[in-house]
Amino acid sequence: MPHIDMVPLESLAQSSLRSLVDQARDLKVPDALFFQIMAHAPGYSEALFDALHRSHVDGNVDHKLKEIIRVRLARQAQDPYFSNLRSQMAKDAGLTEERIEAGCGEFEKDKKFTKAEKWALKYSEIMYTEPNTVFVDFYEEGKKHYSEAEIMELGAFIAFHYGMQVFMGTLNAFPIQDEDGNLLTPAESEKHFRK
User: Fold this and answer.
1) What is the CATH number of the domain that holds 139?
2) Within 13 Å, how many C-alpha atoms sit on residue 1's CB side?
3) pTM above the 0.90 mark?
4) Residue 76 and residue 66: Cα distance in Å, rounded?
5) Which residues span the domain enclosing 138?
6) Which residue pairs from 117-121 have beta carbons closer than 8 angstroms and sit at least 24 positions apart in sequence?
7) pLDDT of 66
8) Does the residue 100 lie in any domain?
9) φ, ψ at 67 (rounded to 5°)
C-alpha cells in the first residue's frame, strides 16, 4: 500500500485531473495511481503530468530509446512503480521487453545498440552514479551523435524522470494496472509487481 493515501477516483470526477487520468490510461506512463496520490496537490499534479508527458513523448530523441532510459533509471532508483510501467506509444512503435532488458543490462557489449544509443544509455547511467565523469570530453563524444538540443533533451529527461522515480519509490507505490490493463487493488498490485 502506498504510504500516502490515494484520492478516490470519484472525488476527481469534477476535476481537471480526471481528464489526465483518462490520458494516463491510454499512455500507460504514468497511470491513474500517480494522479490519485498527487491529487492532494492538484496544481502540482497537472504540472508534473505536463512535464512528464512532454519530456517523454515530445522532442527529437527516439521515444523507444527514452523508454529504455526511463525504465533503466527507475530500476536504478529502485522504484517499483515506474519500473513496471510501459509506454503504450513505445510498445506500438515496436519496443520489446527483450530490448528494454538489453538496455538495462550490459548495453555497451550489445551490438544491437548504435554508438549513439550507447552514449545516451551511458549518460543515463553515470549522471547520478559518476557525475564527475560527465565533463567536456563526454559531451564532445555526445555531439558526434546528437545535436546540442538533443543532449539538453536527454539531460533534462534523465534528471526529471530519475527524481520523480526516487520520489515514487519512497511512497511504496505500484502500478494499479497489470501488463494487460486490468485494474488491480493496491494490495493486488504490490503482490503482482513486488520482486
Assistant:
1) 1.20.1290.10
2) 4
3) yes
4) 15
5) 62-179
6) 117/65, 119/145, 119/146, 120/61, 120/65, 120/69, 120/145, 120/146, 120/154, 121/68, 121/69, 121/72
7) 97
8) yes
9) -65, -40
Q: What angle (nearest 5°) sits at the alpha carbon of residue 101, between those of residues 190 and 142?
A: 120
Domain presence at residue 191? no
11-28 pLDDT, tens per residue? 887 778 888 877 777 778
Q: Do residues 107 and 71 make contact, with C-beta atoms less than 8 angstroms apart?
A: no
Tally of domains within the chain: 1
Residue 68 lies in a domain: yes
Going by C-alpha positions, the residue among 104, 75, 70 that lies closest to residue 90 is 70
Closest CA to 169 of 87, 84, 45, 81: 81
Give the C-alpha separation, 32 to 7, whole Å.
Answer: 10
Q: What is the pLDDT of residues 111-131, one digit of tens each?
A: 999 999 999 999 999 998 999
